[in-house]
Design a protein that fits this description.
Blueprint: H1 6-13, E1 20-23, H2 26-38, E2 45-48, E3 61-67, H3 76-86, E4 87-96, H4 103-115, H5 127-133
Parallel strand pairs: 1-2, 3-4
Length: 134
């Protein structure tokens, strides 16, 4: 769920060196690897994985950052269980998602649906919905 890893790149460049990213898309992982390699950031690891079966041990991560992915899931419950499994107890989860309560996000999503650019599985989630799911 790292996509092209722009946020991971920012975190790595600003002191966080143990970056592990995954995405269901091999193309996005290839972009991530290339970006990090191009700038000499060799310690970051990226791999293809489904969010419902993340290939990491329990309580592995100090921080899980999900970027614009949760609204593509038909059911967040299994993804949330898996994220919680890999997250260390009392550590941090941050979701960066389009917020339907923000007029710009709502309009952008509405426009994309009307023009056929939005994928059929997109369902914007409010911050409270995401929080309640966790």
């Amino acid at each position: 769920m790292c996509g092209p890893s722009f946020f991971s790149f920012f975190l790595y460049a600003h002191r966080y060196k143990n970056i592990v990213g995954f995405d269901i898309s091999k193309e996005q992982i290839d972009i991530s690897k290339s970006l990090f390699r191009k700038h000499g950031f060799e310690k970051a690891r990226f791999f293809v994985s489904d969010v419902e079966k993340i290939r990491l041990p329990e309580e592995y991560a100090d921080f899980v950052f999900v970027t614009t992915s949760l609204h593509h899931l038909s059911d967040m419950i299994d993804a949330v269980k898996e994220i919680k499994r890999i997250l260390k107890r009392n550590h941090y989860f941050v979701a960066f998602e389009p917020n339907p309560l923000n007029p710009y996000s709502w309009y952008h999503h509405w426009t994309e649906r009307r023009t056929g650019k939005a994928s059929v599985n997109e369902k914007l989630q409010t911050p409270n919905k995401i929080k309640d799911t966790f």
